[in-house]
Specification:
The structure holds two protein chains of two kinds.
Chain A lengths: L4 H7 L5 H16 L5 E3 L6 E2 L9 H12 L9 E2 L13 H10 L3 H11 L31 H9 L12 H8 L1 E3 L11 E7 L7 H12 L4 E4 L2 H4 L5 H17 L6 E2 L4 H6 L4 E10 L1 H9 L14 E9 L1 H17 L8 E6 L1 H8 L3 H7 L3 E3 L3 H6 L8 E3 L2 H6 L3 E2 L2 H10 L4
Parallel strand pairs in A: 2-3, 5-6, 5-8, 6-7, 9-10, 9-12, 10-11, 12-13
Antiparallel strand pairs in A: 1-4
Chain B lengths: L1 E5 L1 E4 L3 E7 L4 E2 H10 L24 E4 L2 E2 L4 H11 L5 E4 L5 H13 L6 E3 L3 H6 L5 E4 L4 E5 L1
Parallel strand pairs in B: 3-5, 4-6, 5-7, 7-8
Antiparallel strand pairs in B: 1-10, 2-8, 3-9, 9-10
Classes of the chains: A alpha/beta, B alpha/beta.
Chain lengths: 425, 148
Amino acid sequence: MYLTDEEKNILAGGQGEVMAKIMKTLVMYGDTFHADRFVDVTGPGGHLVTSFGVSIMTAMFDVMNEIINAGIKTKTPFTVDPRPTDNKNVPSNLIQMIVARVMYGKQKDYEEQLKKLGLKNDQSFTCTCYMEEVGNIPARGDVLSWAESSAVVYANSVLGARCNRNSAFIDIFGAITGRVPNFGLLLDEERRASWVIEVRTAHTPEAQILGSAIGLKVMEKVPFIKGLSGFLGHELTDDAKAYLKDMGAASASNGAVGLFHVEGLTPEAKDLKDALIRENPKVYVIDDAEMERVKNSYPVMWQNPDAAPKLCFIGCPHLSVHQLISWTERLEKSLASANRKKICVKTVFTAAPDVLAAFALTPFDARLRATGARLSYICPLMYMNNPKSKNLPVITNSNKLRTYTNSRYYTDDEICSLIIKGAAL
Amino acid sequence: MKKTFNGRIVVCGEASAKAVVSRQGFNTLASFQKSLLAKKTDAVCSDQNNPDLYNKPMAHMALCLPQSIGSTTGGLVFLTASAMGAAPACLLFSEPIDSLAAAGAILSDVWTQNSMPTVDSLGQDFLDFVKDGMQVSVAMDGTVTVSD
């Protein structure tokens, strides 16, 4: 990998021992992927995946301390994934709260470390930093040093920014040096698709299952999705963006997708069309039977598979204001049809603090709360990691949450029915 | 029976351990999170979606896999496992390594005392040959030897 004189100087310790280790990490990382050089990071700011102060992660705190004690900060303010606890808004018993307090015992200290490193502000905890209300929105062509798989796949695919699926700490190191190795999804050729996905369902496929099917099939490869814009349209409306956010998150967590193209809809697919597809691509046809097969393949991890759900999470990744409004109207309509006033499963809708603040300014906030639903900024995955939470019969419409926890996946329609009626389907 | 494979060194080093094999993408967070949260240095795989590895030991084993998948915390998970002494003895990839596993291997090498020798591009033959429990050794030049 070619290094400039400045980069060689940093590597040799010219800016201190810690900066040399940071540069060594990035150079080894770049060399592994045959990067030819570093390129400058652009865009409004970084986004980090690690938001949780889990007590046992001493290696993380030690590295952070090394960096901070050397007086090093990121070049621009950054956002970070959601906070792991919210006792005020998420149902927890005393034991759960005590365990969470111990488990995330370093949360306050870690947030202080993040502030010293360059955290944007106290509200910057979300996996959807690209929401308008949050404001960390890269432009097409921006080069990013982000992690958080759902944010990376959204930034690449829907916004047309350029970012590799960076790991925790690689995101920080790129934000500190202001440069990332030039390889992978930063390159035009690597953004071309080696898979064609042909969607042949009778109706709009469930985003979370479609993304899961694609991820499980293509793994880290780039898919070009045909047949979907017939359902979603040809403009990136609020509905389309929400759909692609959820589909992308499922593809990134069930597989390792960092970029997808949707024919006639996402920016590069609109401009380059079939030229984005490599020669002799593999083809995966997804029809209703395949969607059903994929959904039925998910193992049920509950101790009692017939248990009635006790808690429901909606919003992994975090919801947009538009999605919160849609869910409000959906729940109201379903409750009216069932001749009920309140949902009967404790249900938490999660979104970025700034999104929740914007939603609170609309009349829908009170209407959603009137159904019995709760709103929180929490990371549901972190909640489920609590040993006293993991065996609860929790339901979700998130394929990412299903993948990493014992929660049980249901479609949006099934979730709506379940939380209103309370019984197993 | 003994067979030798040559790949590309990602992190240089020597290791010798019993094999544990994932024939599908290895989800690092899903595999390690329960053991790490429970502070178990004898980490066993908790990924419900990986029938090859679920409930099998990973710590101090020669982890043989095609690539890693899943959350971008993957590198941090490997770093944490290394610092705790719960990491695999080495990482052996049949395919070119992915960005998350590479970060984990490199972070462990640069920022901890417990490096995981890592070799990638060993080929499908490697993954077809190696089975759970086989003895695996990694040499400084990246040569991987697998024996019954």
